[in-house]
Amino acid sequence: MSRYLKQTRILVAVDCIIFGFDGQELKLLLIQRGLEPLKGRWSLVGGFLKENESLEDGAAHVLQQLTGLQGVYMEQLYAFSKPDRDSVERTISVAYFALIDLDQYRQQLSEEYHAEWVSLRGLPDLIFDHKEMVAEAKKRLRYKAALHPILFELLPDKFTVPQLQNLYEGVYDSLFDKRNFSRKVLSTGLLVKQKSKDKLNSKKGAFYYKLDKRKYNAKFHSFLNFIPNPNKF
Amino acid sequence: MSRYLKQTRILVAVDCIIFGFDGQELKLLLIQRGLEPLKGRWSLVGGFLKENESLEDGAAHVLQQLTGLQGVYMEQLYAFSKPDRDSVERTISVAYFALIDLDQYRQQLSEEYHAEWVSLRGLPDLIFDHKEMVAEAKKRLRYKAALHPILFELLPDKFTVPQLQNLYEGVYDSLFDKRNFSRKVLSTGLLVKQKSKDKLNSKKGAFYYKLDKRKYNAKFHSFLNFIPNPNKF
DNA sequence: CCAAAAGTGTTAGGTTTACACCCATGT
DNA sequence: ACATGGGTGTAAACCTAACACTTTTGG
């Protein structure tokens, strides 16, 4: 293979903003950095792009290494490229955000990486421009969730409507009317009511629902308007 | 400065999908490639990222070199990274799309680059994965224009409502009801009616409008819903 | 005077919001 | 029996879409 002459080759990294929901609040999966410099400081999960990998592959590898999970929802967020963003060497980083069902992932939290789920409020300091990346990811998540049923990716297979509302309220840091919320959600036809109830969060119990995968895939790109007054956000 | 050891450094390019509107239809600014291989084949405008440049800077430089324009609307589209996407050498390319007022740019079309405005229907073959980039850019433009007043960036300072509708109809390849369209558009409060009329396109003449820059900036990120039945698209 | 494009109003249907009470059950 | 959270209905305001006729003027 020939090459382009006299051009600068640059390190390319992938960083993943991994959101999870524990039923109460939104969390981020962070690690304590393993290499010097800045060893021990909090950081997003990431890695350098390998010779024969696409960015999508790279992001999937990063996630799989850390969580063991595959087939997780992931989306390219943005390519960050300020020349001095990495203090060691010039690196551009393409950030991806991932949504994972925190329940499905209770395994070893890869001791090896000192990974932890950290509440989105009160994040610790992060290295480089990772804080900016997280801010962008939050913005994008809010934007997208206002229009598309993306937040289901954060929930387990079976979930209740109050749980779902809780999640939306967490993401938008507001309270929604439960009558309007459940009507809107159910009217999409995306949910299939189950016979069983979740009895953990109330005495009466709340019915479980499952996603109708077929309709979910079909309507994923439709504009659905789950939250009231979206222009407030 | 120290460096990361044993990591692969990769060529990083910036490619720009430049949309323009000539009053009739949407066009793309393409060039005939200057370097071998594939010399003379149609290509997006692009360049390699320089040592001390951010991607945003790189994209702005590319655009400025070709058109002489600055301060143009631009947005990062996506980082394309298939290992074999460039047949010469592995390169990742971060694509940006730009919207420019074709009138404001009637100058030399930089003979030097063999640039041309090409109609979006019936594009020629493009090198590498540039066709895919264009397809993504079209998708993004439609998506975004359904929600935000982004298409004004393609119009001259003064424009008429029928011209604006024309543009929307071009982007969505459909016809909209002019009564509903003008009501929606005017109800945003974004437009300021001028005294003068455009008499080129009709005998009666159509009033010119200008953007209220203040309100435009304020409402740019609001959800505005300019087109009917957005879920059709 | 005619063709061509601009401009404008109404109504019906649907969607969104605000709001309050009853239900089931574990303690 | 009571506290807790789950579940449901209605009416008013608003928004969207469908639809047709009049105006202006250059040729």
TrEMBL record, chains A, B:
Keywords, ordered alphabetically: Hydrolase
Keyword Transcription regulation assigned: no
Alphabetized CDD domains for the sequence: NUDIX_NadM_like
Pfam families: NUDIX, WHD_NrtR
One of the record's GO molecular function terms: hydrolase activity
Origin: domain of life: Bacteria
Residue stretches making up the Nudix hydrolase domain: 9-140
Organism of provenance: Deminuibacter soli
Name listed for the protein in its UniProt record: NUDIX hydrolase
Keyword Transmembrane tagged: no
PANTHER family per UniProt: ADP-RIBOSE PYROPHOSPHATASE, SLR1690 PROTEIN
